[in-house]
Amino acid sequence: MRKRSTIIVIFSLGIIVILYPHIAQWVNSYLQKGQVEDFHNIEMSDDELDQLMAKAQECNEHIFYDSEGFRDPFGDNEEKLQQFQECLGLYEDMFAAIEIPKLKLVIPIFLGATDEILSKGIGQVEGSSLPIGGSSTYTVLAGHRGMGTKAMFRNVDELYSGDIFYIHTLDGTLTYEVYDQKVIYPDETDSLEIEQDKDLATLLTCHPYRHNYQRLLIHGERTD
Q1: Does the keyword Membrane apply (predicted)?
Q2: Is-catalytic flag, 59?
Q3: How far apart are CA 100 and CA 32, in angstroms?
Q4: Where are the domains of the chain?
Q5: Buried b (16+ CB within 10 A) or exposed e, 186-215
Q6: Active-site residue identified among 22, 40, 87, 206
């Protein structure tokens, strides 16, 4: 009887170990969606919203003329600069959200792409535009691919030309259509430079899956 009970316990523990990542992913996805719902329910006066968006646009103008450009968030020399967080006076606050219908993902976006930020959501990469849209802007959004308990950008390789993703801001929703998927090395950043008069957004993650010596880029252009 004791031997049978031991077998049942071992079997049950094995099932729990197998199911844990899936359960954890579901729970974290539920919590992230709750964060996004709370974000949509933030009460802000029209004047406060106008001031925030005007300040964000000023930040993007600064980024447009920034000579240092894009900073890779997954490299050995990861940048810890918070100048664009400081630009808005935001540190821990969620700034926007990304929705990818094809992957059934809704994830908070934070400013910056430090390890701490990427452990809890998607990060706006230093040197890229803040995710508010607009002419001559290019936001690069980084997310982990290999986290066992959170889906994040694990399956963005399933996005192809014509697929849609949304960036939800306090000022409205921006719609982007995927036009290219590309694999690059960390120093090959020419395709991430801001283009005059265009409104672009790229999803960036490590490649291949569970490795980080290359970068997978999903390029999108604003359609709305």
Answers
A1: yes
A2: no
A3: 13
A4: 2-222
A5: beebeebebeeeebbbbbbbbbeeeebeeb
A6: 206
What mean pLDDT is reported for the chain?
Answer: 81
State mean pLDDT over 40-52. 82
Q: Is 216 helix (H, G, I), strand (E, B) or coil?
A: strand
206 in active site: yes
- With a cut of 60, say whether residue 182 has pLDDT above it: yes
Q: How confident is the model at residue 80 (pLDDT cuts 50, 70, 90)?
A: very low
For residue 125, give the nearest of 166, 74, 89 by alpha carbon.
74
Strands of the chain (E only): list them: 94-100, 105-111, 122-124, 137-142, 164-169, 172-184, 199-207, 214-222
Active-site annotation holder among 59, 144, 168, 219: 144
Amino acid (one-letter) located at 189? T
CATH superfamily for domain 2-222? Sortase (2.40.260.10)
